[in-house]
């Protein structure tokens, strides 16, 4: 997948996240598609591109949300970095480790949101216990779907 | 290609820069540069969000249209069934109209006080006995008697068809007037010209014993005579088709008569039965 492909994935993730959250929330929650895309990009292309994409994706994602402006940018930069650190010990290019990594990073995001909320807004950005368990699960499912899409795209590209 | 060390250092620098930028943005949300950045991002994001929601509403429209299509298919099925029911009702209506016409004919018939009519359906018409007899779906249980006269609707009203010759519990055999065994005392137009109508085993009847010198005209109706032991008087049999030459020995005339109720023309018949308490004619 080339840079333009990743731009398309992040743009789709952004739009999909807004539409999903407002139109089709499952039990009041929706997956964090930009986070999923950041993890996938970090696992496949390394941390530099993922940190940059996560930063801008986070900022764009926060523009239309009620969250603190910049909180997702900070979180996704660190998530991309975290994936890079973990990828030294774990094969993040396979499906199951990537799904597990997505769940782990979703929890890390929740912790970071609480800390950043306390630090910059004076109140934690707590998604609730249900959110802590449901959203990572949704993210893992979305990660599996994205993994499948990317694998097929790469396979097709390889055939050409 | 960057070396591993330089790449790691670059990653850490990038992390530091982007973290610092995020912290600045988070710390100074109301600063002019941050607000400008937010406005610029809004400017970039709004068309994307708008396109996304438009696409979703289009997709929702598709589902609604699909649902409408499914509903239309269901409605179509219901309407088809109703149409089939309407066809059936139309057929029933036609049957009722026929029955109505038949009952009107029955009302025209002035039955003797001692007799009553019983409508029955023709069950069987054997091709090889087309002009001989028919089986009807009324028998002893409905009061059918032997020799009971049988009529059928024709274009000129009720006409003589034959007489019952065998009665079973649920069905009866009717000997048609076209049967060669059949004979009915009859007259042409006025009772002055009377004779005997005999079956020929075909579609034409023969009227014998017409008085010499009488001149029955072609097309004149032929009715049952009052002297008929089986049939009530003045019931239509048919019409004169042609008049033959006088008999060489006795001098009487004969005529061909076309029956008013041809065997192929009826599927229902009226059987005349004696009323309770009255003696029958036959």
Keywords:
heterodimer, A: 160 residues, mainly alpha, Arp2/3 complex 21 kDa subunit ARPC3, globular, B: 282 residues, alpha+beta, Thrombin, subunit H, 6-stranded antiparallel β-barrel, 6-stranded antiparallel beta barrel, 12 strands, rod-shaped
CATH architecture of chain A: Orthogonal Bundle
**Poorly predicted residue ranges of chain B:** none
Q: Write down the overall geometry of chain A.
A: globular
Give the low-pLDDT segments of chain A: none
CATH-scheme architecture of the domain at 115-274 in chain B: Beta Barrel
Computed Rg of chain B: 47 Å
* Helical content band of chain A: over 70%
How does this structure look, described?
- The complex is a heterodimer of chains A (160) and B (282).
- Chain A is mostly helical and 160 residues long.
- Chain A has one domain (3-159): Orthogonal Bundle (Arp2/3 complex 21 kDa subunit ARPC3).
- Chain A contains 6 helices and no strands.
- Chain A has helices spanning 3-23, 33-45, 47-63, 71-87, 95-120, 129-159.
- In chain A, α3 (47-63) runs antiparallel to α4 (71-87).
- The longest helix of chain A has 31 residues, at 129-159.
- Chain A is globular.
- Chain A starts with a helix and ends with a helix.
- The model of chain A has no long low-confidence stretch (mean pLDDT 86).
- Helices cover 36% and strands 29% of the residues of chain B.
- Chain B is built from 2 helices and 12 strands; from the N terminus they run ααββββββββββββ.
- Chain B has helices at 4-27, 32-108, and strands at residues 115-124, 133-136, 149-154, 157-167, 172-176, 183-188, 190-198, 205-210, 221-224, 236-243, 253-259, 268-274.
- In chain B, strands 1-2-5-4-3-12 form a 6-stranded antiparallel beta barrel. In chain B, strands 6-7-8-11-10-9 form a 6-stranded antiparallel β-barrel.
- In chain B, β6 (183-188) and β7 form a beta hairpin.
- The termini of chain B are far apart.
- Chain A binds chain B through residues 11, 14-16, 18-19, 22-23, 47-48, 51-52, 55, 58-60, 63-64, 68-71, 73-74, 77-78, 81, 84, 116, 119-120, and chain B through 10-11, 14-15, 18-19, 21-23, 25-27, 29, 34, 37-38, 41-42, 44-45, 48-49, 51-53, 55-56.
């Amino acid at each position: 997948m080339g840079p333009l492909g990743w731009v398309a994935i992040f743009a789709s993730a952004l739009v999909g996240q807004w539409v999903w959250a407002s139109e089709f929330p499952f039990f009041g929650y929706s997956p964090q598609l930009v986070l999923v895309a950041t993890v996938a990009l970090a696992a496949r292309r390394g941390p530099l591109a993922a940190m940059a994409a996560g930063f801008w994706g986070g900022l764009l994602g926060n523009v239309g949300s009620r969250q603190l402006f910049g909180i997702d940018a900070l979180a996704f930069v660190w998530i991309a970095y975290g994936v890079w650190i973990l990828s030294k010990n774990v094969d993040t290019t396979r499906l199951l480790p990537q799904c597990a990594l997505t769940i782990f990073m979703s929890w890390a995001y929740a912790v970071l949101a609480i800390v950043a909320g306390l630090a910059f807004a004076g109140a934690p950005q707590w998604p609730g216990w249900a959110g802590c368990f449901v959203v990572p699960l949704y993210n893992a499912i979305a990660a599996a779907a994205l993994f499948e899409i990317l694998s097929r795209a790469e396979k097709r590209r390889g055939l050409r | 290609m960057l070396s591993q060390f330089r790449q790691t250092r670059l990653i850490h620098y990038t992390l530091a820069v982007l973290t610092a930028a995020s912290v600045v943005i988070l710390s100074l949300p109301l600063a002019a540069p941050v607000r400008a950045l937010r406005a610029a991002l809004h400017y970039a994001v709004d068309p994307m969000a708008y396109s996304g929601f438009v696409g979703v509403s289009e997709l929702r429209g598709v589902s609604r249209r699909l649902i409408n299509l499914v509903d239309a298919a269901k409605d179509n099925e219901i309407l088809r069934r109703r149409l089939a029911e309407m066809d059936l009702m139309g057929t029933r209506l036609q049957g009722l109209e026929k029955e109505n016409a038949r009952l009107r004919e029955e009302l025209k018939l002035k039955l003797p006080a001692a007799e009553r009519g019983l409508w029955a359906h023709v069950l069987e018409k054997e091709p090889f006995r087309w002009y001989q007899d028919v089986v009807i779906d009324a028998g002893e249980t409905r009061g059918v008697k032997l020799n009971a006269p049988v009529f059928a609707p024709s274009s000129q009203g009720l006409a003589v068809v034959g007489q019952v010759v065998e009665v079973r519990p649920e069905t009866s055999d009717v000997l048609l007037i076209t049967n060669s065994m059949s004979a009915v005392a009859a007259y042409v137009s006025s009772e002055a010209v009377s004779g005997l109508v005999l079956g020929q085993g075909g579609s034409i009847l023969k009227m014998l014993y017409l008085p010499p010198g009488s001149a029955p005209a072609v097309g004149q109706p032929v009715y049952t005579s009052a002297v008929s032991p089986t049939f009530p008087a003045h019931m239509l049999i048919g019409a004169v088709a042609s008049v033959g030459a006088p008999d060489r020995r006795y001098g009487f005339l004969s005529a061909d008569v076309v029956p008013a109720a041809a065997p192929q023309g009826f599927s229902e018949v009226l059987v005349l039965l004696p009323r309770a308490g009255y003696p029958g004619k036959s």
